[in-house]
Design brief:
Radius of gyration: 21 Å
Mean pLDDT: 84
Shape: globular
Low-confidence stretches: none
Strand content: under 5%
Number of domains: 1
Helix content: over 70%
Oligomer: single chain
């Protein structure tokens, strides 16, 4: 389940805070916006092919110790029947959520996705779907502060000239082909995200990538996708992404179990990314150079 959410989370920019952060930084520094469907157009081959590989690993190689799920299905069915029909609050929530999702899908170029999300939250409280006290108790304010802090850190790196200095200091010493530089940047992001949150990885690396983009005349959209997508491929350690942390906290597996198949998925993910960046993106008009 954890790896399924990790793979699926890179499909849209709503699949993780790192995607929204990357899109926000791109818009802030270049005035370029990536629409909801546009992101899917660029990203879908990576999760699609990874899910196929993941399914093959589970069905052909992994040891499955659950033989019968009928009892679980019966218990879920009884719980569903006990809940009864949808309440008025639940119907209101469905309508509000549907409006928010439709706005994200079709109006993201007109209305900022963050504004839409905030309006959805206001409507949930205004229509008394939940009370403000419930919101205060349930919302993980630490995640919101972490996201805001990541934006501040990323902006500070650019505004103070740190990223320009690092780009001039390090990249001027390297004689790399532009495509090789992009691939190494993506792999480095993917490795870094195993040790720190993927939001922090994107916040630190993407501004640096933007500075390098100016030196190499690279397409900032391609760099944004490379950092954000590779930053979502955290399969090894619990601290890389919340799904891994939640799954590990269940106590049903050890880190060595994740390393066994996670490392394989990670390497295959790198190979798929290279193929997508080299052949698929130019095919649909996303060139390496601007």
């Amino acid at each position: 389940m954890a790896w399924g959410t990790v793979i699926g989370g890179i499909t849209t920019y709503l699949g993780g805070a790192r995607n929204l952060l990357a899109v926000g930084l791109l818009e802030k520094h270049y005035g370029i916006s990536i629409g909801f469907f546009e992101w899917i157009k660029y990203s879908w081959p990576l999760p699609f092919l990874l899910l196929i590989v993941f399914a093959v690993i589970i069905t052909k190689f992994a040891e499955i110790d659950i033989q019968d799920t009928s009892r679980s299905l019966k218990k879920l069915k009884s719980k569903s029947e006990a809940r009864g029909d949808l309440s008025k609050a639940e119907k209101k929530l469905i309508l509000i959520l549907g409006a928010v999702v439709l706005s994200w899908l079709f109006l993201s170029n007109l209305i900022n996705i963050a504004i839409t999300a905030l309006l959805g939250g206001v409507l949930v409280v205004a229509f008394k779907v939940v009370g403000w006290q419930e919101v205060e108790a349930y919302v993980n304010w630490g995640v919101i502060l972490m996201y805001g802090g990541a934006v501040v850190v990323a902006s500070s790196l650019v505004e103070t000239g740190v990223t320009d200095w690092m780009a001039e200091r390090f990249f001027s010493q390297l004689e790399l082909a532009p495509f090789l530089f992009i691939v190494l940047l993506a792999i480095f992001t993917s490795i870094l995200t195993e040790g720190v949150s993927n939001v922090a990885s994107v916040a630190v690396i993407l501004p640096l990538a933007f500075s390098a983009a100016e030196a190499y005349s690279l397409n900032p959209v391609l760099l944004t996708l490379s950092v954000a997508l590779s930053g979502g491929l955290a399969f090894l350690l619990p601290m890389g992404t919340p799904p891994n942390a939640i799954a590990f906290s269940s106590g049903y597996y050890q880190i060595k179990d994740a390393l066994k198949w996670g490392l394989l998925l990670k390497v295959i993910g790198w190979l798929i990314y290279i193929l997508v960046a080299r052949f698929y993106w130019p095919l649909i008009g996303l060139e390496i150079f601007i």
